[in-house]
Design goal:
Layout: E1 6-11, H1 21-33, E2 38-44, E3 48-50, E4 54-59, H2 74-88, E5 95-99, H3 104-114, E6 118-122, H4 132-136, H5 139-151, E7 156-159, H6 162-171, E8 179-181, H7 198-202
Parallel strand pairs: 1-2, 1-5, 2-4, 5-6, 6-7, 7-8
Antiparallel strand pairs: 3-4
Helix pairs in contact: 2-3, 2-5, 3-5
């Protein structure tokens, strides 16, 4: 087994451009890994950071992605373009680790160009979001294809839950031995039980009565309507 001294992470979201759980995941993961190994983060945006063990480089949008085409295709075409650019830039890491379909092709191409193992973390799956075709047209079929090709050629896949692992095995042609469950972690110094109730009271919630807490984007896929 190859010793891991440096990892390259490919991601759409990275601070300050975080809008979902995958971005939060990568932010905390990169910090934690950087305490043990070198970490090279490549993300969508204009970020630039160079620390002793953590470097961050942003890749800007492809200006021509929506020119002379159906504008709904722009997101998938831009993701492919940025993935290609991320992959062609020199990689001297021991593993390439991708997050979400936006950078999956980058990881696959990088693994071929630089002879490095390719790992995917699965936060969500395109086949489970068919409504996107209404928004993206055939751009959705392109993003789904990129995800499938990368998934079925990855050296290892990390699922964030047992259900996600089962979905991967049901929807893709991958070996069960390649799919591992690693739940999303937290920083226990930041997230910990407390007996304080001032936040509830400030929001008008009676801490003495049962209540439901929802944390997430207000979108149909998060299940807020069912709640």
């Amino acid at each position: 087994m190859r010793e891991i001294k440096k990892a390259t992470l490919l991601t759409n979201e990275y601070p300050p451009n975080v809008y979902g759980g995958a971005g939060v995941h990568v932010e905390y993961l990169s910090r934690a890994l950087a305490r043990h190994i070198e970490v090279d983060v490549r993300c969508f945006g204009a970020q630039q950071e160079q620390g002793p063990s953590l470097s961050v480089r942003g890749y800007p949008a492809w200006a021509a992605a929506k020119e002379n085409t159906d504008p709904r295709f722009g997101g998938a075409l831009d993701a492919f373009h940025r993935s290609l650019t991320m992959a062609k830039d020199t990689i001297d890491a021991d593993v390439v680790h991708c997050h979400t379909w936006y950078t999956d092709m980058g990881g696959l191409i990088a693994s071929r160009l630089w002879d490095v193992p390719f790992v995917l973390s699965i936060h969500s799956l395109e086949p489970l979001r068919p409504w996107k075709v209404e928004q993206l047209g055939n751009g959705y079929h392109l993003s789904s294809w990129m995800e499938r090709i990368a998934m079925e050629h990855a050296d290892a896949i990390i699922a964030v839950s047992q259900q996600t692992r089962e979905d991967v095995l049901r929807l893709f042609d991958v070996s069960p031995a390649h799919v591992h469950v690693i739940h999303n972690g937290i920083d226990p110094t930041e997230y910990r039980p407390t007996g304080r109730t001032d936040a509830l009271e400030r929001l008008g919630v009676d801490p003495g009565k049962p209540y439901l807490l929802f944390v997430g984007r207000i979108t149909p896929q998060k299940g807020i309507l069912h709640l």
